[in-house]
Write a structure and sequence with these properties.
By secondary structure, the chain is α/β, with parallel strands linked by helices. The chain folds into two domains: 110 residues, Resolvase, N-terminal catalytic domain (Rossmann fold, 3-Layer(aba) Sandwich); 64 residues. Helices cover 51% and strands 15% of the residues. It has eight helices and seven strands, in the order E-H-E-H-E-H-H-E-E-H-E-E-H-H-H. It has a five-stranded mixed β-sheet with strand order 2-1-3-4-5, with helices on both faces. Helix 7 crosses helix 8. The longest helix is centred in the middle third of the chain and has 34 residues.
Length: 223
């Protein structure tokens, strides 16, 4: 059986956490011995993020897989391959079509076996659930904050953070400018014309800069 190893780090600092390129390569070589596989090569992606599959080493790895040059891909840990559930599913589907198994040392995983495929499917499902659950909790927390008048994200133009640091209160000066913006908008002025008029009257943005049509549009959306 021919195998190809794949190792990746996004920054040199990761060496401090036991995931240096050499540490990963040693685990890959050891697993190749255990598997009784001929390790053709160890492909390296140094300084590459797992957020995307668009990496030089990954491109080479997939060209070997697609060419049927290897029977297995060995990695030290799943997150060295990708941190995306979607990308992992796509990779596994591609591996399966080519008859290539994925072996991960840290997870004791081998998709060349039925048990390995079952475990990976469960792990993928749990990861997807966890990501969606975090998203739901975040949305619920944001909704609760908004319902209680608490600040969420940036403070919209026309308001300021209250003394308690949680709630918003109207900013008299900005509310005055906001009222003028609404008047001009109701009169049929474009956002660019409104910006010109505000500048002519000596009004500035929250940062003390001149008004631009983008700032006017943003103030109207937040109002």
């Amino acid at each position: 059986m021919k195998a190809i190893g794949y190792v990746r780090v996004s920054t040199e600092k990761q060496a401090d956490f036991g995931v240096s390129l050499e540490a990963q390569a040693e685990k890959v070589r050891a697993m190749a011995v255990v598997q009784g596989a001929e390790l053709v090569d160890v492909i390296v992606d140094a300084g590459e993020s797992a957020k995307s599959l668009n990496r030089p080493g990954m491109a080479r790895l997939m060209s070997l897989v697609d060419a049927g040059a290897v029977d297995a891909v060995i990695i030290a840990k799943l997150d060295r391959l990708t941190r995306s559930v979607k990308d992992l599913a796509e990779l596994l589907e591609r591996f399966t079509r080519r008859g290539v198994s994925l072996v991960s040392v840290a997870e004791s995983l081998d998709t060349g076996t039925a048990a390995g495929r079952l475990v990976l499917n469960i792990m993928t499902a749990v990861s997807q659930w966890e990501r969606e659950a975090i998203g739901e909790r975040t949305r619920d927390a944001m909704h609760h904050k908004r319902a209680n008048g608490e600040r969420v994200g940036t403070v919209p133009f026309g308001y300021r953070t209250a003394a308690d640091g949680l709630h918003l209160e109207a900013d008299p000066a900005e509310q005055g400018i906001l009222s003028r913006i609404r008047e001009l908008k109701a009169a049929g002025r474009t956002t660019r014309k409104i910006a010109d008029e505000l500048n002519r009257q000596g009004f500035t943005t929250r940062r003390g800069t001149a008004w631009r049509f983008q700032y006017v549009a943003g103030a109207l959306r937040a109002a």
